[in-house]
Amino acid sequence: MPELVVRTALAETLVPWYRAAARELPWRAPGFGAWGVLVSEFMLQQTPVSRVIPHLEAWLERWPTPAALAADAPAEAVRQWANLGYPRRALWLHRAAVEIRDRHAGVVPRDVDALLALTGIGDYTARAVAVFAYGDRHPVVDTNTRRVIARAVHARAQPGAPSRRDLADMDGLLPADDEAAAVMNAATMELGAVVCTARSPRCGECPIRDACAWVASGSPATPDVRRRQARYEGSDRQARGAVLRALRESGPLPQEAVIPDWPDARQRDRAIATLVSDGLIEPEDGLLQLPRG
DNA sequence: AAGGCGTGGTC
DNA sequence: TGACCAAGCCT
Q: Which residues make Cβ contacts (< 8 Å) with residue A39, sequence separation at least 6?
């Protein structure tokens, strides 16, 4: 029963390791606040910790509350987002701030279903906020957690395709106590981030190595179902990124003056059209600009 | 439900 | 060098 072995190891070995070795990250500071946690989780969606930290601090200095962000135009959020990537997260974070102001009196909700109803918040982010900001007991499952469970419990080198089963897996590993469960969620993510990594896991430094089903079975290669990322060079995504960068840095521009030297004019026009459709840019008096809201 | 969606660092 | 990877979400 690898689950019981792993559960015991998480409680007795992983959590003490985490208490001693956890990185000091801004959102782990006592009293960081639910808004700060929520903003950090938006930024951390597919973006590394090291790139997020400076942007997070600037963001919270400018907009210390959801209402402060909601009072500005979405254009300001997209511009402040700068080069963090996936700029629709900036748009969605702004929308979520408006929804928090209008539906929750400006207070980040604590209830998972209320969080899930906010724009840009899914299974991971909703539970991360409920657990790390409010201390409630929920399974928090991100890519790190999925990898740790795949190896330690299921003896696989890599996780399978994401599924609701992941939440049940993690829930079964958590202790009953709210506070202890929150720490275990964080510790599991930390282990996946710094030890049980995707490419070269540091099994020699792993606090739960003795309980790991994958190590016990000889660390075999197993079927890999991960999605391959499409090539970026020459892609529509690259064109969209170039368009948005130009509008962020040079203000409103005529369509023909946005990335005028782009090698593929049809791709440029397609990028502009999909950005408009996504609400990331808008045409106004013959000029393209960031959304004024 | 499979694919689209940025950007930069690493090996 | 190019492919992989990074605290996902939406349609």
A: A56, A59, A60, A93
